Amino acid sequence: MTPKNYISLVSKLEQTQDLSNEEFASLLEADSSSFAEELARRARAVREKYYGKDVYIRGLIEFTNYCRNNCYYCGIRRDNGRAQRYRLTHEEILACCAAGYQLGFRTFVLQGGEDAYYTDDRLTELIRAIKKSHPDCAVTLSVGERERDSYEKLFEAGADRYLLRHETADKAHYESLHPAELSHEHRLQCLRDLKAIGYQVGCGMMTGSPGQTTEHLIKDLRLLQELQPEMVGIGPFIPQHDTPLASCQAGTAGLTLKLLSIIRLLLPQVLLPATTALGTIDPQGREKGLLAGANVLMPNLSPVTVRRKYALYDNKICMGEEAAECIRCLSKRVAAAGYHLVKDRGDHPGFKEIFTSS
Fold first, then answer.
1. DSSP assignment of 188-214, as one string?
2. Which end of the chain is more exposed for a tag (fewer CB within 10 A), N or C?
């Protein structure tokens, strides 16, 4: 296929937000730097149509690295006896939020392993405390699979958003990355429950995960079309040395960037992070992500003392930076890419009116 043919497919995707499986495969497998540049340019234009030059920041608080699960790729998996376990206290989490608020953060992301210590009661108490201290801020949860009644209680307590990566939309591929105790069907049901309850929902996948094929990625894109999430978080697979997949090859920045652009054209108003994993695999990854259609960054607000313990994968960046230092650095990098950080909740346009009018 010629570059001209690729561009015609991109134009079709822009206009219809859909392609055939064969057309998606052609885009995903295209090996042309000029095409990749044009794809990113088109995605950037769509992103700027809806969000201008604004980049939203989310304050990531990794509050527990205990996890009941044993995912084959994850450094905080249950059977990793070398992981240094920790839980932040209620007061420490609120202190992270207070420091982040002073730095301009208006969204706090509570991310952790599936830790049974954090019952519905403990989490609802925490959410209410954050909302009481910072009523103009959004609270995002990223604490894995729970049952619908649990999600409902957390939503009623004030949680606004929920991040739950589906990792892969292909059942057999999912089962190659997770032990039998985890169910692909349950993961997808959780996402559907979250949407039905009223959360702004984020899903996403690893790019270049072991065994991944073009067909798997097309299934991921079809799932995004079906679910219509408000956020999509993707990043390259990066092996972690204490996991069963330690010797597997990492994913690439190139495929991740291409998918960011395709997802921007597929879901024009989606909130799309340039992830830490992308910045880990490529020193300029986050800037390249913004230039490929992303509009969200998630700096770490966790205490420096625990950051290295939340080791989902190897060589994670920004492990030793204080939050203030990190935001200064990011501001410069974002400006160099032609964008600017904003002090805003950064809601999806479908939800924005709800919060600006209340």
1. HHHHHHHHHHT-EEEE-BEET-TT--H
2. C
* Cα gap 295→51, rounded to integer Å: 8
Could you read off the pLDDT of 151-174 as tens digits, one per residue?
A: 999 999 999 999 999 999 999 999
CA distance 107 to 139: 6
Tokens 């149509």 found at: 49
Q: Which residues contact 321 (CB under 8 A, 6 or more apart)?
A: 300, 304, 329
| Other C-beta atoms lying within 10 Å of the C-beta of residue 327 | 21
Q: Domain tally for the chain?
A: 1
Full domain range(s) for residue 14: 3-356
pTM for the whole structure: 0.97
- End-to-end alpha carbon distance in the chain: 51
Q: Please, which contacts does 320-324 make with residues 24 or more away whose CB atoms are closer than 8 Å?
A: 323/59, 323/96, 323/99, 323/100, 323/103, 323/299, 324/99, 324/103
pLDDT band at 353 (very low <50, low <70, confident <90, very high): low
CA separation for the pair 57, 98 (Å, rounded): 15
Residues sharing a CB contact under 8 Å with residue 105, sequence separation 6 or more, in sequence order: 57, 58, 59, 137, 301
Q: What is the pLDDT of residues 113-131, one digit of tens each?
A: 999 999 999 999 999 999 9
CATH code where residue 305 lies: 3.20.20.70
- Beta carbons within 10 angstroms of residue 184's beta carbon: 19
Alpha helices in the chain (DSSP H): 3-16, 21-29, 33-51, 90-102, 120-133, 148-157, 171-177, 184-197, 214-227, 253-266, 276-281, 285-291, 304-307, 323-336, 349-356
Burial label for 308, CB within 10 Å (0-12, 13-18, 19+), is exposed
Find residue 120's DSSP bridge partners: none
